[in-house]
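Each field is listed here:
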Amino acid sequence: MIQLIQLNDPHLAQMLADYLQTQNMPCQVQSSETGISVWLLDETKTSAAEREVQRFILEPHHPRYREAAWQQEKPATWRSATDYSLMTELMLQAQPLMLVVSFLMIAVFLLYWLTIPVESLLAFEWPWQRGQIWRLFTPVFLHFSVLHLVFNLAWWWYLGGRTEQRYGVIKLAIVLISGALIPNVLQAMVSGSLFGGMSGVTYALLGYLWLRERNSEDPSQITVSNGLFIFMLIWLVLGFTNLLGFNTANLAHLGGLLVGLIQGWRDSHRTIPGPA
């Protein structure tokens, strides 16, 4: 008997054990002072079981685990397991660069809300005016309402966290920088410096993940479904029509999407090692 994983929630541990049982990997759940452990009874299946555990950590709320719970006649545990699984996945996506950028977005908004003129330091400016190169990038930290911040922060946490988790901090940094600089320049060409937000980067991440993962053999590894991608395309087009009733940085959205698609296409056509 070999210990596969230790968790804090008994329902989550039982759900994993139920799934492994359906894969002919008999397991036992044991509780202790330090947590709930899942033990594999057949050590000859250790390698396969460990692969399944890693997949469970990445996608703990996937329907396959709910179906396994029902097959084992334990549906009553699903509600709390689902709630905990969602929180677990959010925590798993709390990657270093994603968190640093999230904190900066929140901090800049709080300063703005306190009427401290952060926009005078972070707003877009062409480098030949005063040579302040950082202004080509820093408009992504500017948000002008709570809704604006929450919307972009949620997308950044989901898409940025998933990108850093699966493809590493360097890849997220590349998409972040290119998804900020190019869309910001495009937007400044039509609206001047009066814009801000992470939406250009959001569209870059959306395009990158959609094209990077669309040929994945495992549907659970697809971050951006075709339906979500089409919805965001419609949202982008509506922004150009002015039917949304508020101003949007349309060229930033379009530029970000193109940046992400180009990088996603390039990376999907070559072998890229995952993060260490």
